[in-house]
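Problem: given the chain below (212 residues), write out its structure.
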Amino acid sequence: MRVPRSTVPSSLAGEGQGEGAFRTQLARFCLAPLVRVAILAVLAGGGGSVAPAPAEAQGTFQRPHRPTIILGRRHPGRIAGIAADGVIVDLRDGGKQVVQFSEIWRIRRAFASDEPAGTAVVDFANNRLFVATPLANLIADIGKNIAVVQFTAPNGETIYMAANKITDIFNSLPGLHNPLSKTVIGTRDGTQQVLELADDVKRIVAAARTAQ
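Solution.
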Protein backbone atom coordinates (compact mmCIF):
# COMPACT_ATOMS: atom_id res chain seq x y z
CA MET A 1 0.00 0.00 0.00
CA ARG A 2 1.45 3.38 -0.99
CA VAL A 3 1.89 5.91 1.78
CA PRO A 4 -0.08 9.15 1.17
CA ARG A 5 2.17 11.90 -0.13
CA SER A 6 1.27 14.29 2.66
CA THR A 7 2.67 11.94 5.28
CA VAL A 8 6.00 11.16 3.64
CA PRO A 9 8.78 13.54 4.74
CA SER A 10 12.08 13.56 2.85
CA SER A 11 13.83 11.99 5.87
CA LEU A 12 12.01 8.71 5.25
CA ALA A 13 13.76 8.51 1.90
CA GLY A 14 17.12 8.48 3.66
CA GLU A 15 18.09 12.01 2.65
CA GLY A 16 18.87 12.97 6.24
CA GLN A 17 16.96 16.26 6.36
CA GLY A 18 15.78 17.97 9.55
CA GLU A 19 18.16 19.96 11.73
CA GLY A 20 16.65 18.95 15.09
CA ALA A 21 16.90 15.26 14.36
CA PHE A 22 20.38 15.81 12.97
CA ARG A 23 21.65 17.44 16.18
CA THR A 24 20.28 14.58 18.29
CA GLN A 25 21.82 11.97 16.04
CA LEU A 26 25.11 13.85 15.90
CA ALA A 27 25.31 14.00 19.70
CA ARG A 28 24.78 10.26 19.94
CA PHE A 29 27.32 9.61 17.22
CA CYS A 30 29.96 11.82 18.82
CA LEU A 31 29.51 10.22 22.25
CA ALA A 32 29.90 6.69 20.92
CA PRO A 33 33.68 6.94 20.30
CA LEU A 34 34.22 8.39 23.81
CA VAL A 35 32.40 5.45 25.35
CA ARG A 36 34.49 3.03 23.30
CA VAL A 37 37.73 4.75 24.37
CA ALA A 38 36.74 4.51 28.04
CA ILE A 39 35.99 0.80 27.70
CA LEU A 40 39.29 0.21 25.92
CA ALA A 41 41.17 2.02 28.67
CA VAL A 42 39.57 -0.11 31.39
CA LEU A 43 40.25 -3.34 29.53
CA ALA A 44 43.82 -2.30 28.76
CA GLY A 45 44.46 -1.78 32.42
CA GLY A 46 43.26 -5.29 33.12
CA GLY A 47 45.34 -6.88 30.41
CA GLY A 48 42.38 -7.44 28.04
CA SER A 49 42.22 -6.63 24.34
CA VAL A 50 39.48 -5.43 22.06
CA ALA A 51 39.39 -5.52 18.26
CA PRO A 52 39.17 -2.13 16.52
CA ALA A 53 35.81 -0.87 15.29
CA PRO A 54 34.80 -1.88 11.74
CA ALA A 55 36.29 0.31 9.04
CA GLU A 56 32.87 1.37 7.78
CA ALA A 57 32.13 2.93 11.17
CA GLN A 58 35.22 5.14 11.11
CA GLY A 59 35.39 8.43 9.24
CA THR A 60 32.22 7.79 7.26
CA PHE A 61 29.86 10.28 8.93
CA GLN A 62 28.82 13.18 6.75
CA ARG A 63 26.57 16.06 7.70
CA PRO A 64 23.39 15.86 5.58
CA HIS A 65 23.46 18.22 2.62
CA ARG A 66 20.62 20.52 1.67
CA PRO A 67 20.32 21.89 -1.85
CA THR A 68 21.76 25.38 -2.19
CA ILE A 69 19.53 26.27 -5.13
CA ILE A 70 16.13 24.73 -5.86
CA LEU A 71 14.75 25.23 -9.36
CA GLY A 72 11.24 24.54 -10.64
CA ARG A 73 9.44 24.05 -7.33
CA ARG A 74 6.67 26.52 -8.20
CA HIS A 75 6.83 26.05 -11.95
CA PRO A 76 8.46 22.70 -12.83
CA GLY A 77 10.78 22.82 -15.81
CA ARG A 78 10.35 20.93 -19.07
CA ILE A 79 13.01 19.06 -20.98
CA ALA A 80 13.83 21.12 -24.08
CA GLY A 81 16.49 18.79 -25.44
CA ILE A 82 19.56 16.68 -24.76
CA ALA A 83 22.94 18.24 -25.51
CA ALA A 84 26.31 16.53 -25.71
CA ASP A 85 27.18 17.63 -22.19
CA GLY A 86 23.83 17.75 -20.42
CA VAL A 87 20.07 18.12 -20.27
CA ILE A 88 18.53 21.38 -21.50
CA VAL A 89 15.63 22.40 -19.27
CA ASP A 90 13.15 25.17 -20.03
CA LEU A 91 12.25 26.99 -16.79
CA ARG A 92 9.19 29.24 -16.75
CA ASP A 93 10.70 31.31 -13.94
CA GLY A 94 14.29 31.51 -15.14
CA GLY A 95 14.90 30.85 -18.82
CA LYS A 96 16.87 27.77 -19.85
CA GLN A 97 19.09 25.72 -17.57
CA VAL A 98 21.66 23.18 -18.76
CA VAL A 99 22.18 20.42 -16.21
CA GLN A 100 25.59 18.92 -16.83
CA PHE A 101 25.69 15.11 -16.96
CA SER A 102 28.90 15.24 -14.93
CA GLU A 103 27.09 16.99 -12.05
CA ILE A 104 24.03 14.74 -11.75
CA TRP A 105 24.25 12.35 -8.80
CA ARG A 106 20.64 11.37 -7.95
CA ILE A 107 17.25 11.20 -9.72
CA ARG A 108 13.94 10.22 -8.17
CA ARG A 109 10.19 10.74 -8.26
CA ALA A 110 8.81 13.67 -6.26
CA PHE A 111 7.00 12.27 -3.23
CA ALA A 112 7.45 14.67 -0.29
CA SER A 113 4.50 16.85 0.74
CA ASP A 114 6.32 20.07 -0.25
CA GLU A 115 7.28 18.81 -3.71
CA PRO A 116 5.18 19.34 -6.87
CA ALA A 117 3.23 16.16 -7.62
CA GLY A 118 3.94 14.27 -10.83
CA THR A 119 7.45 15.64 -11.29
CA ALA A 120 10.90 14.11 -11.36
CA VAL A 121 13.63 15.38 -9.05
CA VAL A 122 17.18 15.82 -10.33
CA ASP A 123 19.92 16.46 -7.78
CA PHE A 124 23.02 17.89 -9.43
CA ALA A 125 26.05 19.28 -7.60
CA ASN A 126 24.49 20.97 -4.53
CA ASN A 127 21.32 21.95 -6.39
CA ARG A 128 17.87 20.46 -7.01
CA LEU A 129 15.64 20.67 -10.07
CA PHE A 130 11.99 19.67 -10.53
CA VAL A 131 10.97 18.75 -14.07
CA ALA A 132 7.51 17.91 -15.42
CA THR A 133 8.79 14.82 -17.21
CA PRO A 134 7.93 11.15 -16.58
CA LEU A 135 10.70 9.61 -14.51
CA ALA A 136 11.10 6.65 -16.88
CA ASN A 137 11.67 8.94 -19.86
CA LEU A 138 14.18 11.03 -17.95
CA ILE A 139 16.15 7.98 -16.83
CA ALA A 140 16.18 6.62 -20.38
CA ASP A 141 17.59 9.88 -21.76
CA ILE A 142 20.19 10.38 -19.05
CA GLY A 143 21.11 6.69 -19.02
CA LYS A 144 22.35 7.00 -22.60
CA ASN A 145 25.07 9.36 -21.41
CA ILE A 146 26.02 8.23 -17.89
CA ALA A 147 25.89 4.95 -15.99
CA VAL A 148 22.79 4.97 -13.76
CA VAL A 149 22.18 2.46 -10.96
CA GLN A 150 18.88 1.75 -9.21
CA PHE A 151 18.30 1.30 -5.46
CA THR A 152 15.45 1.38 -2.96
CA ALA A 153 15.06 4.16 -0.38
CA PRO A 154 13.89 3.33 3.18
CA ASN A 155 10.36 4.48 2.29
CA GLY A 156 10.20 2.04 -0.63
CA GLU A 157 10.73 4.63 -3.37
CA THR A 158 13.05 3.83 -6.27
CA ILE A 159 16.20 5.95 -6.34
CA TYR A 160 18.54 6.31 -9.31
CA MET A 161 22.15 7.36 -8.83
CA ALA A 162 25.06 8.11 -11.14
CA ALA A 163 27.51 5.25 -10.64
CA ASN A 164 30.59 7.37 -11.26
CA LYS A 165 29.56 9.93 -8.63
CA ILE A 166 29.54 7.37 -5.81
CA THR A 167 32.57 7.69 -3.54
CA ASP A 168 31.57 5.78 -0.39
CA ILE A 169 29.50 2.69 0.42
CA PHE A 170 29.16 1.70 4.07
CA ASN A 171 26.81 0.00 6.49
CA SER A 172 24.18 2.22 8.09
CA LEU A 173 24.71 2.96 11.79
CA PRO A 174 21.99 2.26 14.39
CA GLY A 175 20.75 5.43 16.05
CA LEU A 176 22.22 7.63 13.33
CA HIS A 177 20.47 6.47 10.16
CA ASN A 178 16.95 5.36 9.29
CA PRO A 179 16.32 2.07 11.16
CA LEU A 180 15.12 0.43 7.93
CA SER A 181 18.20 1.31 5.89
CA LYS A 182 20.99 -1.19 5.40
CA THR A 183 23.54 0.88 3.52
CA VAL A 184 24.56 4.51 3.07
CA ILE A 185 25.80 5.59 -0.35
CA GLY A 186 27.97 8.69 -0.31
CA THR A 187 28.91 11.20 -3.01
CA ARG A 188 30.75 14.52 -2.82
CA ASP A 189 27.40 16.31 -2.88
CA GLY A 190 25.18 14.21 -0.61
CA THR A 191 24.26 10.80 0.74
CA GLN A 192 21.45 8.32 0.17
CA GLN A 193 20.32 5.53 2.48
CA VAL A 194 19.07 2.36 0.80
CA LEU A 195 17.56 -1.01 1.68
CA GLU A 196 20.14 -3.02 -0.30
CA LEU A 197 23.07 -4.58 1.54
CA ALA A 198 26.47 -2.93 1.17
CA ASP A 199 27.99 -5.87 -0.72
CA ASP A 200 25.12 -5.83 -3.20
CA VAL A 201 25.47 -2.08 -3.70
CA LYS A 202 29.20 -2.46 -4.38
CA ARG A 203 28.52 -5.22 -6.90
CA ILE A 204 25.84 -3.20 -8.73
CA VAL A 205 28.00 -0.07 -8.89
CA ALA A 206 31.07 -1.98 -10.08
CA ALA A 207 29.05 -3.71 -12.83
CA ALA A 208 27.60 -0.38 -14.03
CA ARG A 209 31.04 1.24 -14.20
CA THR A 210 32.48 -1.69 -16.11
CA ALA A 211 29.64 -1.73 -18.62
CA GLN A 212 29.81 2.03 -19.26
